[in-house]
Design brief:
This protein is an alpha/beta fold. The protein has 10 helices and 13 strands. The protein has 2 domains: 1-145, Spore Coat Polysaccharide Biosynthesis Protein SpsA, Chain A; 148-259, Spore Coat Polysaccharide Biosynthesis Protein SpsA, Chain A, CATH 3.90.550.10.
């Protein structure tokens, strides 16, 4: 049963400069709603945490970059601020912030520093002491998926637990898969038995793009330890996953449903799209 979650949030976010010079891109806000139904803005990483907490996760490991404490500060409860909001009559905001703090108090949060941006695979490897021998979830801090009752997480969890996959992750069909990790394999009932994964191929063999939500057995850490770094000295998580395939282990991809809505803030264009989608989604009385 998956109860541990690793949230990498240490990237430089250079495509979103200068907004990301002093704050992680994961702290950039998108639209949401308070518990009382008021439209509000929340950092992307808070939405990810709240969704995972709602799905039963209670142990969290945040991989953060050096000299950027904004995420850790945000996840430090401040009861004086809640009281100040209450005195100002901001009941919706104070109740929502208190609910966020209650989730934090009921969870174990671990903070691990990634001194240099050496890739997504290296960030996951940094969580080795937190993971131990357990299975765990990896969820990027700059991407969020809306689905009914967090169904995408349940489908992923089912594939990991019931099918005993050594690695399972979400995929989505996209028009231009060249900027994603791309999956090849045989598909049945929305699940792909993966035979190959390629990071940002120039000539994609399929339009199934990896979405950065993964369920792993701890064997992925052994694979990443022997995965050589590539361009820029970065260790790619997709290369580690390919090693699992090469070792003959079970790797599965779970396709998102057509009604699932993905928010990505990795570039100015994607952030603009995420703002629009989150605003429309919140106005339609959906909850984060």
């Amino acid at each position: 049963m998956l109860t541990k979650a690793v949230i990498p949030a240490a990237g430089l976010g250079t495509r979103l400069l200068s907004a990301t010079k002093e704050q992680p891109k994961e702290m950039l806000p998108v639209f949401s709603k308070t518990r009382s139904g008021e439209l509000c803005l929340k950092p992307m990483v808070q939405l990810v945490f709240e969704q995972l907490h709602g799905a039963g996760f209670r142990e969290f490991c945040f991989i953060v970059g050096k000299e950027k404490r904004a995420i850790e500060d945000h996840f430090t409860p401040d009861q004086m601020y809640v009281s100040k909001l209450q005195k100002m009559g901001k009941s919706g905001a104070s109740e929502d912030l208190q609910a966020f703090y209650d989730m934090i108090e009921k969870s174990t949060l671990v903070w691990i520093n990634q001194p240099e941006p050496r890739g997504f695979g290296d960030a996951v490897l940094k969580a080795k002491s937190f993971v131990g021998a357990d299975s765990f979830l990896v969820h990027a801090g700059d991407s969020y998926i809306h689905s009914k009752n967090s169904g995408h997480l349940e489908r992923l969890r089912k594939e990991s637990d019931t099918a005993k996959a050594d690695a399972a992750f979400l995929v989505q069909r996209v028009q231009d898969p060249r900027r994603y990790g791309v999956v090849e394999g045989t598909q049945e009932d929305g699940v792909v038995k993966v035979s190959r994964v390629v990071e940002k191929p120039q000539k994609p063999a399929s339009n199934l793009a990896i979405m950065p939500v993964y369920a792993f057995h701890s064997v992925i850490l052994k694979a990443l330890e022997v995965t050589p770094s590539g361009v820029g000295g970065e260790i790619q998580l997709t290369d580690g996953i390919q090693k699992l395939v090469d070792w003959g282990l079970s790797v599965r991809a779970v396709e998102l449903e057509k009604t699932d809505v993905r928010l990505d803030i990795g570039s100015p264009e994607l952030y603009w799209e995420a703002q629009n989608l989150s605003y429309k989604y919140s106005l339609n009385d959906h909850t984060a």
